[in-house]
Design brief:
The structure holds two protein chains of two kinds. Chain A is built from five helices and four strands, in the order E-H-E-H-H-H-E-H-E. Chain A is an alpha+beta fold. Chain A has two domains: 94 residues, Alpha-Beta Plaits; 67 residues, no CATH class. Chain A is elongated. Chain B has one domain: Formate dehydrogenase/DMSO reductase fold, CATH 1.20.1630.10. In chain B, helix 5 packs across helix 6 and helix 11 packs across helix 14. The chains are: A alpha+beta, B mainly alpha. The interface between A and B is large, with 69 and 69 residues.
Chain lengths: 185, 483
């Protein structure tokens, strides 16, 4: 994960198949990849990078359950306990007619909850300033990113550099983020 | 991902990732052409007329509409159901077609979802103003109040509608926006002015496209699709309950939910086709919305249109078979009463003309599809009009029988919503990427013409392939996918 680090080595590839092979080779060599940036979801990249499965769907289930319980509980409380109204002798607790709203609120809670979780976990919010390694990664290039220490030994950098070039990187560059970098220049 | 070479490519022309970005971002860059200003001028005028009509309604009350004691629901509910129906295609394309792995959705899902959102907005306007006192619209939500507390009636389908439509709107909006973030990031990274970069970065929520982000993105899309699929079906089901749970002859039928849902998908696809046929040619994106896409959508129209046709005939049969005099009269009156013209317009536009789509030549003809899609839009409006007005205008007391006529306000609000809808769509087509860029790139390596040509070449160079598949390699040669 890209985090508070400020110095990175970036290898750019122009093809998703080369990228997948490169990830495999580099990881076999014992070098850990900080992150990969791609312009679209590349299938198999999670396995290649050894990422854990996302648990977003579990969060979605819990949000859905909350909505379901809340809707059913609120309608029951209102129609049965708080203000029972007799509509032509129909039951106060009319489960069949509670189902549409219960269903809608289950979906609503699950969706809104999941999207909020998704944005939160991905660090997405309006106006967030991202660390852009290379502008081409949202266009036609695929990047492998390696976080470097401030005083990273040159021999390590050279090693990664060599690996990137061997695996078909079209460009390798070092990206240093300044404290007051102007991204909208 | 392997795909059989005889499958029609979904991206035609000599493309690569860079070219895809350029083609699809181009429409948001530079100044809009003069045609765009003329178009938005016209739709803006229509919207203004609508706003005048709405203000007239709010100022004088519902009495300015053509409603009366017998027909208490007419154009407003017709328009409401019509717009909601149109709003069904977007989420159907993005959710149901995602679950069915139909890759042709990638070319059209973005615009169709935008259309859904705008259509639902137009739809929600009608119940809002039909309340007569729209500033009291919040009364429909269950909130603790000092009137008892007096709660809304949870047994009423009209209240279910409130929940169904607001949920549908919110979920469609979230689905749409979560897909837009990566594409906004693409625009941001291509932008060369400071202000443009700032705006698109804000819109992109700081998206960068890390492996983990994409993993969560795919997980989110899949679960949202799973949730939105029953949601799409539920919304029009609940809309149909507005009628079906009442005891008016002509409305009180159990066939309504599936009949309304297929009708909604039918009209939604018709509207998508109308708009996309114009958009693909104006924005020059025929390589991404190909004739193959149009044919696929036509197939869905044919299916849902035929379901609608079967439903009409089933209704007639059941009305006769029920032995219930009033039900029989309601249907006889629809077909041969004073509104016979509306009934037969509906029958022609929804049942007869869509059957032309059985012919491949017609399904693949852009011009005929365009005309047919407009015919379906008209037909589906009349369907709702027929269901609503003809069931009401001759009620149980012949002394209160009337012939409903709309006033200029009824017509004005309808024209106004068309104006609002088109204005929003025009703005969308300039500021947002009309085709989902990342998703198109995702299917590029398997479903593009470039990929097909490569497959063909591989087949020719290895004897095994061409021996095993002579037809395939012959059939592929010099194939032209353009319209």
């Amino acid at each position: 994960m890209i985090s508070s680090n400020n110095r990175y080595l970036v290898g750019l590839y122009d093809n998703e198949n080369t990228l997948l092979k490169a990830i495999k080779k580099i990881r076999e060599d014992g070098v850990s990849i900080t992150d990969a940036l791609t312009p679209f979801p590349v299938h198999g990249i999670e396995d290649a990078l050894g990422l854990e499965d996302s648990s977003l769907h579990k969060a979605g289930f819990l949000f859905g359950l909350t909505g379901f319980t809340l809707a059913l509980a609120l309608m029951t409380w209102i129609n049965y306990f708080n203000y029972p109204i007799n509509f032509g002798g129909k039951p106060f607790f009319a489960l069949p007619s509670f189902i549409p709203i219960t269903f809608e609120l289950t979906v609503l809670f699950a969706s809104v909850g999941m999207v909020v979780t998704y944005c939160f976990r991905n660090g997405l919010y309006p106006g967030a300033i991202p660390k852009i390694m290379d502008k081409r990664t949202t266009d036609d290039h695929f990047a492998l990113v390696f976080a470097l220490e401030e005083n990273e030994e040159q021999v390590n950098i050279d090693h990664i550099n060599r690996l990137l070039n061997q695996t078909g990187a079209v460009e390798v560059k070092e990206r240093v983020f300044e404290e007051d970098e102007e991204i909208f220049e | 991902m392997y795909e059989a070479p005889i499958r029609e490519p979904l991206i035609t022309g000599e493309k690569d990732y860079k070219q895809i970005t350029t083609d699809l971002v181009r429409s948001t860059e530079g100044l809009p052409p003069i045609k765009w200003f003329i178009a938005i001028g016209i739709t803006g005028l229509m919207a203004t007329f609508g706003i005048v009509a709405i203000l007239t309604t709010v100022f004088y009350g519902i009495g300015v509409w053509g409603l009366n004691k017998t027909v208490g629901w007419a154009w407003d509910i017709t328009n409401f159901v019509w717009w909601i129906g149109i709003g069904h295609a977007g989420t159907l394309i993005s959710a149901i077609l995602l679950l069915f792995r139909q890759k042709f959705r990638t070319g059209i899902n973005r615009a169709a979802e935008a259309m859904t959102i705008f259509a639902v907005l137009c739809a929600a306007l009608f119940p809002g103003i039909h309340m007569g006192r729209p500033w009291m619209a919040f009364y429909i939500f269950p909130y603790p109040n000092t009137r008892g507390p007096l709660w809304p009636n949870f047994n009423s389908p009209l209240l279910w509608d409130v929940f169904a439509i607001s949920t549908y709107f919110i979920v469609s909006l979230l689905f749409w926006y979560s897909g837009l973030m990566p594409d906004f990031a693409t625009i941001r990274d291509r932008a060369n002015s400071k202000i443009r970069k700032f705006i698109y970065n804000a819109l992109a929520f700081g998206w960068t496209g890390t492996a983990k982000q994409w993993q969560r993105f795919e997980s989110l899309s899949l679960v949202l699709a799973g949730l939105a699929t029953p949601l799409v079906l539920s919304v029009h089901t609940i809309v149909s309950f507005d009628f079906a749970t009442s005891v008016i002859p002509g409305w009180h039928t159990t066939i309504f939910p599936p009949y309304f849902v297929s009708g909604a998908i039918f009209s939604g696809f018709a509207m998508v086709l109308t708009l996309m046929i114009i958009t693909r040619s104006v924005l020059n994106i025929k390589d991404y919305i190909t004739v193959g896409h149009i044919e696929s959508m036509n197939k869905i129209m044919l299916l849902t249109g035929s379901i609608v046709g079967v439903a009409y005939i089933t209704e007639l049969f059941i009305a006769w078979y029920s032995g219930y005099l009033y039900e029989q009269y309601a249907f006889f009156n629809r077909a041969f009463g004073p509104y016979w013209w509306a009934y037969w317009t509906m029958m022609t536009c929804n049942v007869i003309t869509p059957q032309l789509l059985w012919f491949k030549k017609i399904r693949r003809s852009v011009a005929i599809t365009f005309v047919l899609s407009i015919v379906v839009n008209i037909g589906m409006w009349f369907e709702r009009f027929v269901i609503i007005v003809t069931s009401l205008h001759r009620d149980f007391l012949p002394s209160s029988w009337v012939y409903f006529m709309p006033t200029w306000v009824d017509i004005g609000i309808f024209i106004g919503t068309i104006g609002i809808f088109l204005t929003l769509f025009l703005l969308f087509s300039r500021a947002f990427p009309v085709v989902a860029i990342a998703e198109v790139k995702h299917i590029f390596s398997a479903s593009s013409e470039v990929a097909r040509k490569k497959q063909l070449k591989d087949m020719e160079t290895s004897d095994q392939g061409s021996v095993a598949n002579p037809d395939v390699s012959l059939g592929l040669k010099d194939k032209d996918y353009k319209d």
